[in-house]
């Protein structure tokens, strides 16, 4: 029982108050045990797969004494799980970390329960969420990560660390049980964020899409995470790491603001 951390709340709502409003701050304060590496992208144009973030991933594993990881391949719809596992395993082996994919586990829930670290790869977020919910792994991974198990994700794997998948860039190729995800951070991430505007294209820009989200979800921060960057959460401190690309923070009613690696980002955890 020594590793258990319990918060036993008397009631969900007080008369005249919104649901869980009175205890929201109590619930949100315990971020201290989380160890998260949330990466925007796996590949930069013209570079080897996962090469740009290999050193930061290695450092993250070393800091947290991770020798083996459990890989979640469910976002890799096109390449297939076996191919995806091998592709990521080859990278992790270069810095001495053993990788096994959960799709080969006899008992996936037990495998996550025993894992030193969970790594969630990118691909299609809707398929990833649908499979995590179908297998019961969504709640299990979230529970372990909230207890302090190191978690690494990129692209869709960063999306599912958020409260919902609503800021993914992906096509809804499958309908999950819900849009709810792990809620490891209290804000939304938009991976692969770009300001690029093609003057020959008459459709919506990325900012147009995110403005739609903020119009409907006015209390939620959105982090636009540009390529070759990542968010690192350790010791209740959130940092932007990677290459020298600023991230953009969006919220309804506020002007977009850019933040660099020198800025304090802890306001996003509140």
Explain what this protein looks like in three dimensions.
The protein is an alpha/beta fold and 270 residues long. It has a domain at 31-184 and 227-241 and 264-268: Class I glutamine amidotransferase (GATase) domain (Rossmann fold), CATH 3.40.50.880. It is 27% helix and 17% strand. The protein contains eight helices and eleven strands. It has helices at 24-28, 54-63, 81-93, 108-114, 125-135, 137-147, 156-159, 206-216; strands spanning 36-39, 68-72, 98-101, 118-120, 151-154, 188-191, 222-225, 229-234, 237-242, 247-250, 257-259. The chain has a seven-stranded mixed beta sheet with strand order 3-2-4-5-1-8-9. It is globular and about 45 Å long. The protein starts with 23 loop residues before the first helix and ends in an 11-residue tail after the last strand. 37% of the residues are buried.
Give the CA-based shape.
globular
**SS-based structural class?**
alpha/beta
**Beta-strand content:** 15-25%
Query: What's the CATH class of one domain, please?
Result: Alpha Beta
CA radius of gyration = 18 Å
**Which sequence of SSEs, written as H and E, runs from N to C?**
HEHEHEHEHHEHEHEEEEE
- State the major sheet: 7 strands, mixed
Q: How many DSSP-defined strands?
A: 11
Give the termini distance in whole angstroms: 29 Å
pLDDT below 50 for ≥5 consecutive residues: which ranges?
Answer: none
CATH topology of one domain: Rossmann fold
Number of helices, where a helix is a run of at least 4 consecutive DSSP H or I residues:
8
**Average pLDDT figure:** 91
CATH superfamily of one domain, by name, is: Class I glutamine amidotransferase (GATase) domain
Widest sheet: strand order?
3-2-4-5-1-8-9
What is the helical fraction, as a range of percent?
Answer: 25-40%
Quaternary form: single chain
The appropriate CATH architecture of one domain is: 3-Layer(aba) Sandwich
